[in-house]
Design a protein that fits this description.
Largest sheet: 7 strands, antiparallel
Radius of gyration: 18 Å
CATH superfamily: Jelly Rolls
Order of helices and strands: HEEEEEEE
Number of helices: 1
Shape: globular
CATH topology: Jelly Rolls
Helix content: under 10%
Strand content: 35-45%
CATH class: Mainly Beta
Distance between the termini: 42 Å
CATH architecture: Sandwich
Number of strands: 7
Length: 134
C-alpha cells in the first residue's frame, strides 16, 4: 500500500476531493465595472493554474507570445475579439467560446462594449528556487 500523494516539495497536498471552486456567472455579475483577476486557483499541490479575468470595455491585452505554455481560454461573460499574427481580422469572442492558445503563438484580446470576462487554464509554472550563489 502506498502513502498519501505528495507535492514536488514533499508536502502533503490538501485533500484530493473534487469540489466546486466558484460560480463564474455570479462572480462576473458582481461589480460589472471591476477589472483584473476576479478569481485564482490557489489549492496546494495543484498541477494547473487557472484565473478568471475581466477586461473593462475597450481595454485589451496587448499582443504577446507565451513561449512555454499552452493555454485554454473560456469566455464566461461579455464580448470581445481575439487577435493573432496569422489572421487578417480578429476573431469574435462571446460567452461559451473555448479558445486554444498554443505555446509560441502570438495573441491579443480586446474587450467589446460590454467588457469581457474569461477563464484561463494552463499547466502550473514551477516555483522560483532560491539557491546559493556560486
Amino acid at each position: 500500500m502506498t502513502g498519501p500523494a505528495r507535492t514536488r516539495d514533499g508536502e502533503e497536498p490538501e485533500a484530493a476531493t473534487p469540489r466546486i471552486l466558484c460560480d463564474t456567472a455570479a462572480l462576473t455579475s458582481k461589480e460589472p465595472t471591476a477589472a483584473g483577476v476576479l478569481w485564482k486557483l490557489t489549492e496546494s499541490g495543484r498541477q494547473l493554474d487557472a484565473n478568471v479575468v475581466r477586461l473593462a470595455p475597450g481595454h485589451r491585452v496587448a499582443p504577446h507570445a507565451e513561449p512555454d505554455l499552452d493555454v485554454l481560454l473560456l469566455v464566461v461573460a461579455g464580448d470581445g475579439a481575439l487577435g493573432t499574427d496569422r489572421e487578417s481580422e480578429a476573431q469574435p469572442l462571446a460567452p461559451g467560446a473555448l479558445v486554444w492558445l498554443p505555446h509560441g503563438s502570438t495573441r491579443s484580446i480586446t474587450a467589446g462594449d460590454e467588457g469581457l470576462a474569461y477563464l484561463t487554464v494552463h499547466r502550473r509554472r514551477p516555483g522560483m528556487q532560491i539557491g546559493r550563489a556560486e
